[in-house]
Fold these 2 entries.
Entry 1:
Amino acid sequence: MSTPPALADTIRTHETPEGVRLRLRLAGPVVRACAWAIDLVIRLLLYALVVGIFAFFGGVGTALMLISFFLLEWFYPVVFEISGGATPGKRAMGLVVIHDNGTPVALPSSLIRNLLRGADFLPLLYAAGLLSMLVSRDFQRLGDLAAGTLVVYREREPERAELPWAVSVRPPAALSVGEQRELIEFAERSARLSPGRQVELAELLRGITGKQGDAAVCELHSYAQCLTPGALMRQEAFEQRHQSLWDTFSRQLDELERPRLRRRPEQGAGLPERYRRVCNHYALARERRYSPALVEQLHRLVLRGHQQLYTRRGAWMWRLLAFIANGFPRALRRQAGYFWFALFLLPALLIGVGCMLDEHLVYSVMGEAEVEQMESMYRPDNEHPGRTLERGAESDFSR
């Protein structure tokens, strides 16, 4: 499944100690809800399998069944997140859980974010978690805030775009290197743009091309065909000079991304030096405006290297205590109105509407004696609404 195009307000940037800005594409509530629904279906199937296995073992089977339910409910996401960064539902939607500094999620953080799902569920149907995501700049629910985690789109290997066919035509005016690269990028991305959008962008340069509509698009494609050989020669020379280093760095990352038990200490040798060199190449590729495919390829290598070098270790208990003592009260004060609405006013409104639709629903929240007292206080023949008929005005506290 392809990753949807990123919008400006869904991009989180993290600057590494090397001065490189990593782009993390945040996942919003809708796609995360879809991933949760997929995981729910998988868990329900597992629950049914557990029931089918242990239903014939009497009391011992019931005990094992309850233990299995507990483990599935609370540790199903933890196992998948620490092994690959995502549950099957998140993986199907192209998502991954990471720390807010771009490093892979570790066991302590995964435990914290998933054990706090009970708080996110309050008062019902994950209302607190959804509200927290909507008011958070990074779409973090309460568990994410406590664990310092983010849910982002998984980086995919970029594909090189092919220029649409056109007759090579030299541009009528001298263009800077940046302007030449922009023309080539327009041609490379044309296949992903609608015809109307292509025309809209091409007509911005009507003063240069002197054409409108589809003719303007074809003219820019012709300019790109003429400019591509020189630009490709510069980029190809850059790639040929450093490709061996990128391949070595990628293979080393593949080894380090294996499960911890299968790693060897010598696999990390030379990683910091290679990482710094790849960071420099990434900065050069962006400055020289090389093709988006090359820039994305280097960005992905830098992100993977950053995740291996700066993975959080230890001190998770202190982070949890700091969040309970400081982070959560501060977030609650900052968003107090939203939380009080979700915890008190919204449930009261839902219960009121439910009681209006079904008068018997009130007995699920109030006792029979309390209901009779309320009816007595607001009967039409009561001369003093809000006061029971058995209690006179002389018993009021104000008198």
Note: The first strand starts at residue 11 and ends at 15.
Entry 2:
Amino acid sequence: MNTQSALSVHLLIVDDDPDTVRLMKHVLAKDGHHVSAATSGAEALSCLETSLQGNDPIRLVLLDLMMPGIDGLEVLRRMRDNPRLAP
């Protein structure tokens, strides 16, 4: 019985460490998830906006809180303040 397709989700990994992104992407894709990745807060916000334009929007964000530039808490604030991203 294959339950992966029923439980799979499009998710976004946000981390400034490329090794962490690569590892998490490998593990989650292996479990059948559609995985996108961003290495900065600005890139994460762009990925989220872009995903809303297609048929497979990002439903879950795995977010590193301590990143240079726009940190994870600021990304969360901007997501919450954006009516398109808040839901």
Note: The first strand starts at residue 10 and ends at 14.
